[in-house]
Design a protein that fits this description.
The chain has 360 residues and is an alpha/beta fold. It is built from 13 helices and twelve strands.
Length: 360
């Protein structure tokens, strides 16, 4: 089992950029010293801070617009933990440049890099980059094909819908052979069987999906994996909100406001983006909006969160691991971005030192 932390690299309202970077690297240091296996960097664009009293809260502002640069800095200051992307939004970047930069991180880290990839479920970043979101599926697949060819061939040529290269040599090549582990973000019902057929490991979350939905989708992923003739079983990492405190009351109350705002905001996002061209199918987005718009905090605690004392969280994560046949758990420790930093650090410390040892 792999146990890691997701890094949204929060840009807290009222903090400076310098303080935000310091907080991000403090999380890295806590993961390394606490014995966790890795940190996983989100990719966020145009995520500026707003007044938290704005409707639906201040969003989740972030400084991690260039995760591979952050990954390189993390690799240089650590010796043991793995550094992953969760995920690199491939359609927004040039695939050759992505291949070069990701391979560079893999070399600097001496093979401690994991390549999580996706296309993002929302169109806002695409609008900022002036890339049509309805091209995202095709751009994603073509970009991934280019990157893997760049890593596995001394020279290669490519002619596709969006990119064309003739006899190019891309350097450096990755440290890991043939390339770093590739993990695809699965967010829609159609993504799970397609990823299984392609033979990629997956990265999943409990934001738009609850545990029963996710369990069904993972069965489809494993079925498609086996029908395609791949060896073994598909490897699944779960991103899940985790908050650990000394008492059950603290674990429930301390993250409640931030968590509740986050899921209510997510419901509005699903509702407002249901008609985006190229997005999750309209009916799936509307269903998620309807569920999340009426969901209670108790519903979240039951089906989408792991909040509690160290023993309670360890018990819940063990049940989830067995139910979903997981290979890794990635903790999201500041859902909504509004939990005070000292409380986040305390939760990470308890997770690393008192929860994870029970699951090893």
């Amino acid at each position: 089992m792999h146990f890691g932390l997701i890094m949204e690299c929060d840009y807290r309202y009222g903090n400076t950029l310098e303080e935000s970077f310091t907080e991000a690297f403090d999380v890295v240091d806590a993961a390394e010293s606490g014995g966790l296996d890795g940190v996983w960097l989100a990719e966020r664009h145009f995520a500026a801070p707003r007044d938290p009293l704005d409707p639906m809260g201040g969003g989740i502002p972030s400084i991690v617009s260039t995760p591979l640069i952050m990954a390189s800095a993390i690799a240089a200051r650590t010796e043991r933990i793995r550094i992953g992307c969760a995920v690199a939004v491939l359609p927004l970047l040039h695939p050759i440049r992505m291949a070069e930069e990701a391979a560079t991180v893999d070399q600097i880290s001496r093979g401690r890099f994991d390549f999580g990839v996706g296309r993002s479920g929302f169109a806002r970043s695409y609008q900022g980059y002036n890339i049509p979101y309805d091209e995202s599926r095709e751009r994603f697949q073509e970009s991934l094909d280019v990157i893997l060819n760049a890593w596995t061939h001394e020279r290669f040529s490519h002619k596709g819908k969006f990119f064309e290269y003739n006899d190019v040599c891309v350097l450096p090549k990755p440290y890991q052979k043939p390339y770093p582990p590739v993990r695809v973000a699965a967010t829609t019902k159609e993504t799970f069987p397609r990823t299984g057929t392609q033979g990629y490991h997956i990265f999943v979350g409990l934001r738009g999906l609850d545990r029963p939905d996710l369990a069904q989708n993972l069965r489809e992923y494993q079925r498609a994996w086996k029908e395609a003739g791949h060896e073994g079983e598909g490897d699944v990492f779960l991103r899940i909100p985790i908050y650990v405190a000394e008492t059950a009351e603290k674990a429930r109350s301390e993250p409640e406001e931030s968590t509740w705002r986050s899921y209510r905001r997510l419901a509005e996002t699903f509702g407002n983006s249901a008609s985006d061209s190229g997005a999750t199918p309209d009916e799936e987005r509307r269903e998620r909006y309807q569920r999340l718009s009426t969901i209670t905090y108790d519903d979240l605690l039951r089906d989408r969160l792991a909040y509690g004392t160290p023993d309670a969280v360890a018990k819940q994560l063990k049940e989830i691991t067995e139910e979903l046949q997981l290979s890794g758990i990635i903790a999201e420790t500041n859902v909504g971005g509004l939990i005070p930093s000292d409380r986040v650090k305390n939760s990470i410390d308890l997770f690393a030192k008192e929860v994870v040892p029970q699951l090893r």
